[in-house]
Design goal:
255 residues; alpha/beta; 7 strands; 36% helix; AB_hydrolase_fold; TesA-like; hydrolase; Thioesterase
Length: 255
């Protein structure tokens, strides 16, 4: 049975550049503290064959007043349900940092519960699910959390210098960090979809070896691309990353 597509004003899914004739959809999952708008440039840059769906988590921007979710599993359940109406054509997943863990859990749900094998999982700036580190940034006070964000250079410095804005965004950022840092891999069957990892060669959050361990989480093809830079290397290498993803996705789109 075909499920009607939701309108573009849904809570979870943002379609900045509708491409009704596309043959594949790329779901973009933000990092901790990130929002759907972070991926607006990626959506704009993708070719006409790839429609981009950007996920908006609760607690930010137009969802600022909604209850926060502070576990990857809870987020995965919600995003998975929101994505089901969009699986009428091939779907791929792209997540950076926490978003990569989330993408993995969504891919698991799609494969195991719906027998929908994603066209690809692109895991950026994140250790493999089985490569655990003990991290406690979410337990720091507000100053410690802000210091972490400044060190990673993924948040607009003007926002971090505005006390009123900080009061609004810090609860969501803390919830995201709690979700990312308390995530634990539950062993199970490997994915069937292709997995591609992107990693910065100077990323304090993940080593090249920890990123390469994603290869153990799929029976499909695995590739890894290393870029110069730290945790937010993708900001400097967006054109190349978009080109790599589009090249991989356009092949099944033409099939």
């Amino acid at each position: 049975m075909n499920t009607p597509l939701p309108d573009d004003n849904g809570l979870w899914i943002r379609r900045f550049h509708p491409r009704p004739d596309s043959r594949v959809r790329l779901v973009c999952l933000p990092h901790a503290g990130g929002s759907a708008s972070f991926y607006f440039p990626v959506s704009r840059a993708m070719p006409a064959s790839v429609e981009v769906l950007c996920v908006q988590y609760p607690g930010r921007q137009d969802r600022r007043t909604e209850p926060l979710l502070d576990s990857v599993q809870a987020l995965a359940d919600k995003v998975y349900e929101a994505l089901l109406p969009w699986t009428d054509r091939p779907i791929a997943l792209f997540g950076h940092s926490m978003g990569a863990s989330l993408g993995y859990e969504i891919a698991r749900r799609l494969e195991q519960e719906r027998d929908v094998v994603p066209a690809a999982l692109f895991a950026s700036g994140r250790r493999a699910p089985s490569a655990h580190r003990d991290e406690t940034v979410h337990l720091r006070d507000d100053d410690g959390l802000v210091a972490e964000m400044r060190g990673l250079s993924g948040t607009n410095p003007q926002l971090l210098g505005d006390e009123e804005v900080l009061r609004m965004i810090l609860p969501a950022i803390r919830a995201d960090y709690r979700a990312a840092e308390t995530y634990r891999w539950n062993p199970g069957p490997p994915l069937r979809c292709p997995v591609t990892t992107f990693v910065g060669d100077d990323d304090p959050k993940v080593t090249i070896e920890e990123a390469a361990a994603w290869s153990t989480h799929t029976d499909g093809p695995f590739t890894q691309k290393v870029f110069p830079g730290g945790h937010f290397f993708l900001a400097q290498h967006q054109t190349e990353i978009v080109r790599l993803m589009a090249g991989q996705l356009e092949a099944p789109a033409r099939a």
